[in-house]
Design goal:
This protein is an alpha+beta fold and about 325 residues long. It has one domain. Helices cover about 60% and strands about 5% of the residues. The protein has 14 helices and six strands. Strands 2-3-1-6 form a four-stranded antiparallel beta sheet. Strands 4-5 form a two-stranded antiparallel sheet. Strand 4 and strand 5 form a beta hairpin. Helix 2 runs parallel beside helix 7 and helix 8 packs antiparallel against helix 13. It is globular and about 50 Å long. The chain starts with 5 loop residues before the first strand and ends with a helix.
């Protein structure tokens, strides 16, 4: 899991970013939006998976914090994430198992075996779709472990503060892009990757999360690769940090676990506030991906996502008859 998270439409080495973004406007080709729909599907699958696993995780006692009402959990969680990210970036150790342990997530023999197997597969065959499957599985398991450790007030505080930090790290300090440069080469499911073409291979082309290849140099134009040859065979990818699913998903799990509202979808242990958070997150995702499609470069994912999740959560709480004060934990 990365320190924060960003969303991006990233051209791979030698691709023309302007061409990627201009295709849909030039000919109305709806296939230009397919990668974004793929990102939405991965996000939704991760959050729904987390909701579906909530009862199982609670029964197993796999919860990050024993006192979910303690606002201090937010600070402890921030330290976990910062330390874990630093360890992964400095040492290059980026497996699911090490990420989970460094984040303080509870472990078990079964989860350890799954993590080890996933790490082996990613090391042997680090293709984009393998990475995405691993990211969904890891994210779905992590969301209830995290969400059950935060009551209404702590989780709301976390979403607001983390969205602000994400915006600062991407747009002001820029250190999120620098961090991404150190994490991009790791074979760890820390980002969802959906290419614009099925001919794209993550194993062969790699992934430049830092975006160092976006600007052409003095010797080659945007339409040529490093050897001066045409880049027709290179394709862009749509990216979304795994944290952009984990943080919003935590609110949906917390809502289902701690708010006194009838469960409307038993299979997901979801009440109206939880469903509102899910729908609000999808609306926020739509706004984020529209921004990514229209404006080149990396964008902070959590500000629009968390805004949508919080708005949907509060609307769902009102619809369920839960007082706003109770929903906010004040």
């Amino acid at each position: 899991m990365s320190e924060g998270s960003t969303a991006e439409d990233r051209p791979t080495a030698g691709s023309d970013s302007a061409t990627e973004h201009g295709t849909a406007e030039a000919d109305g080709d709806m296939t230009e939006w397919l990668p974004y729909l793929g990102i939405v599907a991965l996000y939704t699958a991760t959050v729904l998976g987390g909701l579906a696993l909530t009862d199982e995780m609670r029964a197993l006692g796999l919860v990050l914090f024993e006192d979910p009402g303690n606002v201090g959990n937010v600070g402890i969680f921030a330290v976990y994430v910062l330390v874990a990210t630093g360890v992964v970036a400095v040492t290059g150790i980026g497996t699911v198992a090490t990420e989970g342990a460094a984040l303080g997530l509870p472990t078990s023999p079964v989860s350890g075996a799954v993590a080890l197997g996933t790490a082996v597969v990613l090391w042997v065959y680090p293709e984009w779709w393998v990475n995405d499957i691993a990211a969904v599985v890891f994210g779905a398991a992590a969301i209830p472990m995290l969400g059950l450790g935060f009551g209404p007030l702590p989780v709301v505080v976390l979403l607001v503060l983390w969205a602000g930090y994400d915006a600062y790290a991407v747009y002001v300090s820029g250190h999120m892009q620098e961090l991404a440069a150190g994490l991009g080469g790791l074979r760890a499911p820390i980002v969802f990757v959906v290419p614009h073409s099925l001919s794209y291979s993550l194993r062969e082309e790699g992934l430049d999360l830092a975006g160092e290849g976006d600007e052409p140099d003095d010797e080659h134009s945007e339409d040529s690769d490093g050897d001066g040859e045409a880049s027709d065979g290179m394709h862009g990818v749509a990216l979304l940090g795994l944290g952009d699913a984990l943080i919003p998903g935590m609110l949906a799990v917390s809502a289902g676990a701690f708010l006194d509202a009838p469960v409307v979808i038993p299979a997901l242990d979801a009440n109206l506030p939880a469903l509102g958070a899910l729908v609000g997150g999808l609306l926020g995702m739509g706004g984020l991906l529209y921004l990514v499609h229209r404006v080149d470069g990396a964008h902070a994912g959590l500000p629009p996502l968390n805004a949508g999740v919080l708005a949907g959560y509060l609307v769902g709480a009102v619809a369920a008859g839960v007082p706003i004060t109770a929903a906010l934990g004040v």
